[in-house]
């Protein structure tokens, strides 16, 4: 495909653009802070001007905090930054692209990256889990909305497990102003006898990002509501069991 690559780090986007150009595709790199609505609108303008109709939108930019910390040790800025990139970034993507996708006769597809962290309890990671769970709920509703309105736009929620990327270093991208109200970071292991919390790229057994590509492509081609890179955490079954046990009978529609 021809691809517009957006990232807050322009050089990172340019590296991917150059790979695509070397494959003989058209590609453009655009520096974009997805937490800013105006920047995502401007990105959509560039995308439609450069490539015409957009078939696939991947809302994939994401950040996390390190070290892991308790919600009560987190600052307002911690939450605002993570929600801003992870949830509002995906929202801004929908808002900027969906009207133009809907106006096109061609089918389109949106992939929103959530996380396996939302499918199991993840202590020390509340802001991230909240932001990624918001993506799950938003995707569930918008997929149904687009289908009900006959827009021809599919939505997939991608739930990655651990993947070998530079993800754990994302605090480097945090605007300095966001740190203004930080109270001083208390590592999560302060509360767990020194046992550190590891996730994502730091986890033994994290997979190669190249293995995720075919999974996402399959979800787009088959308009799947979900894409998974790893086995389903057992907690999902436990949650289903508890909800079933506690729900009124007969089931309420
Ligand atoms: N790596 C994992 O183990 C893992 C697990 C579950 C979910 N995820 C999710 O996968 C997605 C991709 O992450 P990744 O693992 O490839 O990490 P990554 O750090 O390599 O990629 C994330 C990209 O987002 C960009 N970014 C950060 N803030 C931005 C902003 N404000 N505007 C635009 N771009 C911004 C970064 O520059 C980076 O290139 C993220 O949403 C992440 O939450 C990753």
TrEMBL record:
Pfam families in UniProt: adh_short (PF00106)
Q: SUPFAM superfamilies attached here? A: NAD(P)-binding Rossmann-fold domains
Its domain of life reads Bacteria
InterPro entries registered for this protein in UniProt: NAD(P)-bd_dom_sf, Sc_DH/Rdtase_CS, SDR_fam
What's a Gene Ontology MF term here? oxidoreductase activity
Keywords, in A-Z order: NADP, Oxidoreductase
Recorded family membership: Belongs to the short-chain dehydrogenases/reductases (SDR) family.
**Do you know which PANTHER family this protein is assigned to?**
DEHYDROGENASE_REDUCTASE SDR FAMILY PROTEIN 7-LIKE (PTHR43391:SF14), RETINOL DEHYDROGENASE-RELATED (PTHR43391)
Q: What is this protein called?
A: Short-chain dehydrogenase
Q: Which organism is it from?
A: Agrococcus pavilionensis RW1
């Amino acid at each position: 495909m021809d691809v517009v690559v957006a990232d807050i780090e322009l050089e990172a986007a340019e590296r991917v653009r150059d790979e695509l150009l070397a494959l003989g595709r058209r590609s453009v790199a655009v520096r974009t802070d997805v937490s800013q609505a105006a920047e995502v609108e401007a990105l959509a303008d560039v995308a439609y001007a450069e490539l015409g109709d957009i078939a696939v939108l991947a809302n994939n930019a994401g950040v996390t905090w390190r070290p892991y910390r308790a919600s009560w040790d987190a600052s307002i800025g911690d939450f605002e930054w993570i929600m801003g990139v992870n949830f509002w970034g995906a929202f801004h993507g929908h808002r900027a692209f969906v009207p133009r996708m809907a106006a096109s006769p061609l089918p389109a597809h949106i992939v929103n990256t959530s996380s396996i962290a939302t499918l199991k309890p993840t202590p020390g990671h509340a802001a991230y889990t909240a932001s990624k769970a918001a993506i799950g709920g938003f995707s569930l509703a918008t997929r149904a909305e687009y289908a009900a309105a006959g827009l021809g736009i599919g939505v997939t929620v991608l739930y990655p497990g651990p993947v070998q990327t530079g993800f754990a270093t994302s605090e480097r991208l945090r605007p300095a102003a966001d740190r203004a109200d930080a109270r001083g970071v208390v590592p999560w292991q302060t509360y767990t006898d020194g046992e550190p919390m590891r996730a994502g790229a730091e986890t033994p057994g994290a997979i190669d990002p190249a293995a995720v590509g075919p999974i996402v492509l399959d979800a787009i081609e088959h308009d799947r509501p979900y894409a998974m890179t790893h086995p389903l955490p057992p907690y999902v079954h436990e949650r289903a069991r508890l909800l079933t046990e506690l729900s009124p009978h007969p089931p309420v529609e």
